[in-house]
Every structure is written in C-alpha cells, then in structure tokens.
Amino acid sequence: MTFGHDATGLRSETVRRANLSAIVTELHLHGGLTRSELVARTGLTRGAIRGLIRELTAAELVAEQPSRQRGVPGRPSPVVLPRGDRAVVLALEIAVDSLAAAIVGLGGEVQRLVRTDRPRGHLEPDAIVDDLRRLARPLLAQVGADDLLIGAGMAVVGVVRSDDGLVHTAPNLGWTDVPLAGMVARALGVRAPVVVANEADLGGLAEHRRGAARGFDDVLYISGEVGVGGGIIAGGRPLAGASGYAGEVGHLPVNPAGTRCRCGSTGCWETEVGERAILARARANLRGGGRAMDRVLEDAAAGSPAAVDALRITGEWLGIGLAGLVNVLNPRLVVLGGLIGRIHPFVAGEVERAIATRTLSPARRDLRVVPAALGIDAPLLGAAEHAFEPLLADPATWVSPQDRALQLRSA
Amino acid sequence: MTFGHDATGLRSETVRRANLSAIVTELHLHGGLTRSELVARTGLTRGAIRGLIRELTAAELVAEQPSRQRGVPGRPSPVVLPRGDRAVVLALEIAVDSLAAAIVGLGGEVQRLVRTDRPRGHLEPDAIVDDLRRLARPLLAQVGADDLLIGAGMAVVGVVRSDDGLVHTAPNLGWTDVPLAGMVARALGVRAPVVVANEADLGGLAEHRRGAARGFDDVLYISGEVGVGGGIIAGGRPLAGASGYAGEVGHLPVNPAGTRCRCGSTGCWETEVGERAILARARANLRGGGRAMDRVLEDAAAGSPAAVDALRITGEWLGIGLAGLVNVLNPRLVVLGGLIGRIHPFVAGEVERAIATRTLSPARRDLRVVPAALGIDAPLLGAAEHAFEPLLADPATWVSPQDRALQLRSA
After folding, report:
1. What would the pLDDT profile of A144-156 be if each residue is shown by its tens digit?
2. Which residues pair with B369 in a beta bridge?
3. Which end of chain B is more exposed for a tag (fewer CB within 10 A), N or C?
4. DSSP calls for B115-175
5. Is residue B248 pLDDT above 50, yes or no?
6. Phi/psi of residue B48, each to 5°?
7. Dihedral angle over CA of B67, B69, B70, B74, nearest 10
C-alpha cells in the first residue's frame, strides 16, 4: 500500500489515523461532544473534523444527534456521540472471592455485568477459564453479528507480563506461569484480541478514567484484599514498568524485622496491612476470609477495643508505606480501594499523622487521600478500558473495511 | 497572528513546529545524522526534511557537512550536524562539596567545565549565588553576542519545585524556601530563562541521555552523598511527579525501628545507606565528610574488618531499599551514582542477594544493576539537558526572528 504525502511532510495516512484516534479517544472519555468542543479539545480544524466524523459515522463508531441543550438561543449544535450500542468490549475478572464479566460500550457505559462468588483457594487454570466461559457466554450472545467486538480485557489477581498476558505468579490462585490470555481466547472462541493485566493496575486505570482520580495526572491507587497492590498514573499515563510489573507496592519492605511474606521476602507492606495481618491482630479466624474481615470491621464500628486496636496498628503501617510512596512518586491524589478503602475510615487519623511526619513537606502540600469511587468493579472496568486501547490508538483499522479484515485475520 | 490550514486538518504552523522539534531533538541526542537517517528516525518525508533543514541552517542551529564515510560507493550523503558552537547553554551545580559551571553546546558537547571545592555547611543563599556568578562569568564571556544562549540549567542538592525553581528544602545547605532560579537569573544578568531541579533527578536525566542508561526506557538512578536521591525514567520520560518532587527515594521508610532522619521521619533509607550511617558503622569521624569516607573505602579495599563490615551492613540495607523500588517501578536498569556507586563494588553480593530474595521474580528477570557512567558531573550535564528543553520542544522560537524577539522579551 502506498500513501500520499502532503505539505506538512507527514504521510497523510499517518495524520488521518492520528486525527481519528484523537476524536474517538475524546468521545470515549467524555461522552457526547459538539463539533466545537471537538475542535477545542483536539486542535483540529472544523473542516477536518467534519470529514473524520463522516468516516466514523459510516463505520458506526459515532452518531450525531440534535443537541438537547435548552435555553441557549440560535440553532442547536448537534452532539457527536460514541456508539456504545455498536462498539463493545468484553471485560473479565478473576478476583480473590469472585469472578465477573461485563459488556462495556464505547463511551464507557456498562451494558451488562455479572459477578459470582468463587470459593477461595487454588483452582486449576482450566477450571477457572471454564467458569469464566460459562459466565461470559450469555453476554457474548447479546453482541450482534454486525456489532464490533473490539476485544476482551481481563483483570487477574496476579503478576502479569504485559506482552502476552502470561500470569507469572498468582499466589491467591496457586498459579505459576499460566498463559491466561491464550487460554481465554481459545475458550471464548472470539477472534478479537484478549489482553490481561494485574487487577490493581486496571483498578487504577479505571479510577483515573471514570472514578475518583478523573482529571488528575499523578495518581497512586492502592487496593488490598488478601494482598496489597497498586496502580500508578504518572504524567497522565499508567506507569507499567519495563515489562508491566510495576505497582507491586505490597512488596515494599517496610519492616525488615517483621514476618515472612508469601513472596519469600520479609516484612513486605502487605504482611502488615493485608487481610491476614488484620485478622491476626484482631485475633480472628485466619482462614475466615472475607466474612471474618467483615466481622472485624463491624466490631470496630461497634467500638470493640480489640478490633479498634487491630485497625489502629494497621493504620500506622498503612501510613508508613504510603508516606514512602508519596516521597518516591509525588502523586497529587492517593485513591484507596478494596480492603484498604474499607479500613481507611477507621484509620484516617493514623494515615494523616504518618503523612504529616514521614513525607517531605512539599510533597504533601497539595496531596489528598480519598476513597475509590468505583468499588469492587474498578478492576473489571479497567479491563474494559484496556480492551478499548487498540480502538482508541488506531480507529482507522475499524473504519476501513480492508483494514478491518486484516485486523480480524491477524487476531 | 493567523495560521494557514492544510489538508491534514492540523494548523500547518503547529505541524511545522512539531517537525522542527523532531529534527533538532534527534540531532541533539544522536549527533550528526544524514538526511536518510533523519527520514527514518522522524517519519517525515525527504522533501519536508529538506525545507526544515534549510530553516535550521539559516538560524545557525544546524550545518551540513560532506560525509566522512569511506569505503561506501556512490556520492557521499551529507551529514547534518547540530551547531554546538553557536547554540549553547550554561549549566550550574550546587553540590555538597563543590560548585560547578559548564558551557554545553547543542548536541551535548561540553565546551568548558569548572568545578571548585566548597566548604561543607550552611551558607547564605546570597553568598553561594555570588560564588556561582564568579564561577560562571568567564564562561559566559566566551559566549559571543551573536551566539544563541538557550538558557541556564541548575542542579541543586535540595527539593525543588519545578514550576519556578523554588528550593523548598536543602538540608545540606540549611535552606528553606529559597527562590533560587530568580536569584541566579538576576545575578548572572542573562535574559535567557534559568531552570532549577534536584541533582538526582538531573543525574538520572543525564545518565539516560548520555550515560549508562542510554537507550533504556525504564531506569532507576540512585545517587548518594550525604543524603540519598533518585531519578526515575518511566516509559522513556523523566518521572517528575505532580510538582517535581518525585524520586525522593532516600526517604523511603525501610526501618521504622531505626534512627531519626533529618527530614523528621524515622528509619528512612538514607539513615541506613547515607554517608553518616557508613561513617558511624566504621567508627570514623562523623564530621569528617568526604575525606573520612575516602578513608573508609581505602580501608575496606585494604581488607580492614571494621570497614568491610560497615560496608557489608550498608549493602544489606542498600539491597532492601532497592528491592522495594524494583517491585514498585519495574525498571530494566538500575544505575548507581555518587557514594552509592562508589560502595557498590564492595557490596555487589549483598545487593544481588537482596534482589534475588526480596523482589518478585518476574521483575528481576531482565534487571541489571550498573555503575553510573558520567561520574560526579552527571547532575551538571543533566542541568544542561534541562536547559536545552525549550529549544528541543519548540525550535521555531529560535528560527523565526520575530518569535525570537518575543521569547527574549518574555524571558
């Protein structure tokens, strides 16, 4: 294929693709926008926007509707909307206590979401993939043959290689080196690509795009259940690290004189602020899982000294690790999700004190610590965002039929 | 001012500026390149490159020379060179034990560099700025009236706000909230902008562009003298944090049962691996400074058990903090500079052991730990890179005379 050139010196096909990407990304993140708003947000000319919208409309990625704005004089400006009814992704999650699946449309609307309890403990990868297939099948059946299934995104409680979705380790599942992306792609029988990432990384991505961290460029998202994970947004972009393993904040050594961690090290942050540490301090059943934890939080709310004390000590360790991460990363916003978000109301004082005494004063000046907004579904929603990435980066593949055929063949 | 539009939908002036930036950045980072190499590296067309080189040549930012390539048949392709003789920056540094100044040309060549010892201890900001002015004056006198002084960059051992070069705290200097950028600009009497940043951040930038980390996208640079600092490169870009304070790895809490830190916290990494910790473990004079430290390293090299032991314990703590940072950031390369680089040969075993036992196995799979390449001058060279940023980002300002006049007026 040959491309034309234009006066700017860039191949015009390169420029067209970048412009389509800018428009689809804006619409996905912000929902409906008028052409004037698109001009302002993308820096493109009105004429260029007109042509690109025409292409995207023909591909059924966007649609124009009369504006519903009332009370503004003059002809109403039509609104360009992402077609979440036509372009969708499948999102999947393997959490500690549950499995989940959702269909999410372009623009971020969740069209259907199912979550089922999963017994804790180690299960064969094949068995979990089979459960996921059963969960996802009715959702996929709703996606019409003419609809665009952009891809499938998957969140998993484990350390995942970004290149190919290999799960290196997932202690909660007892997994080592499981090629999850390929297994799920085969089980679902979809031709769209399947991408897999760590649940905390995806939770951070979702909170950044759709939740508590929207509009912030430098964010630290911390979430915990059994272990503790983190998702880092730096300069507006997810910090992946060299191979996608960044954000393993649960394995920051905070107490070298402490207890042994599942990872083989000693005194990792999660040995002090993870579920097991809290249950042990509260003298609760260490094998009681989520229910035992619920009871500790209820007891603390009712003023039980043992539970309150257990959380207070946990809060001190939570503050120590957070302070270190604030010094290293200088985020504007810390978002607490999962178990860490649930204990935060009980330990906000301890966390505040640690930040006041253990961070460098300029780094804490404009810092805020807030609870996550998306709750338990944050990683699942992040998996959907992850699956939309190829479309946002290069919508041209879905706009031009011959390009699309290539895309499907290579998938 | 109005700009034309072209078929791509981007304002053509925006595109021209981006293209000039791409070319000047490539030449600055890689030195001389043929037009064909520029085509390959920038994705621009040959015709566009020709026009842009003409503009840059007229502005004396680049020059073309016949290639010296021998043994290749055919007409030699001319090489486009950055004109480091015409476009320069002034770099300055306030280190713990010294002050330094340099003139660095576009392309990175150091044309002149001076460094003088500085007595340790607290000095009034005015006095240090005056010393810097005396150091820089003869260097600035060499810059001709027709040369382009792009700006001045400055490295300082302190926590610096990126917006305006305010030094929030610099414990080695006894400073709090010193508006250093403005003071230096006034003292030097230059109209070019003065930018200030933390010395470890700039050391990391220099090692990434010109030193041991060249070509790596995910890098952790650690340097120490009295305190310990870090510079993080993530996804090819410096990680600045929300306000420029990121990288304060010396204040990662690694030993909550440890000793009090100058920052007010307890058990920060620098209390275990900084100069004072090493001198204390070796029972050396705590006020002996760099000379006492030299002696500890000489003693260790000679096999003195006290010195070897002091370094061994330091190495264990060095490994603990490094392991935590590897888990959080997943760098491909760790570069050790300053005092940390000097002790590394004595403690490489301890560091390796900590990485083997305290990092998640996938994160360490492709990890390398190497000494810094640029030695004591890394922060100074990073300050030069920092000062070149406005030129690399938008050379058009220096290409078009009216834009340049505006630039100077606003400086």
Report:
1. 888 999 999 999 9
2. B334
3. N
4. EEE--SS---HHHHHHHHHHHHHHHHHTS-TTSEEEEEEEEESSEEETTTTEEEEETTTTE
5. yes
6. -65, -45
7. -60
Coil, helix or strand at residue A113: strand
Beta carbons within 8 Å of A351's beta carbon, 6+ residues apart:
A315, A318, A319, A322, A344, A369
**Spatial contact of B398 and B406, defined as CB atoms under 8 Å apart:** no
Find where tokens 């120490």 sit: B224
**Tokens of residue A276, six digits:** 């097991």
How far B208 CA lies from chain A's nearest CA (Å)?
15
Residue whose C-alpha is closest to residue B115's, from B88, B90, B94: B94
In contact, A82 and A61? CB cutoff 8 Å: yes
Task: Please list, in sequence order, all residues whose beta carbon lies within 8 angstroms of the beta carbon of residue B410, skipping any fewer than 6 positions away.
Answer: none
**Is residue A65 packed enough to be buried (19+ CB in 10 Å), middle (13-18) or exposed (0-12)?**
exposed
List the beta strands (DSSP E) in B39-105.
62-65, 79-82, 87-94, 98-105
List chain B residues with CB under 8 Å of A327. Answer: 248-249, 251-252
Structure tokens at A24: 């689809």
Of A15, A232, A330, the CB nearest to B245: A330
| Residue from B232, B325, B330, B353 whose CB has the most chain A CBs within 10 Å, to mutate | B330
Residue with tokens 């934890």: A293
Residues 6+ apart with CB under 8 A from A92: A99, A100, A101, A132, A135, A136, A152, A153, A154, A155, A184, A380, A383
More confident residue, A76 or A45: A45
- Set of chain A residues whose Cβ sits within 8 Å of the Cβ of B179: none
DSSP state of B61: S
Nearest chain B Cα to A13, which residue? B8
Q: What is the CA radius of gyration of chain B?
A: 23
Write out pLDDT tens, residues B290-341.
899 999 999 999 999 999 999 999 999 999 999 999 999 999 999 999 999 9
Report d(CA A255, CA A265) in Å as an integer: 11
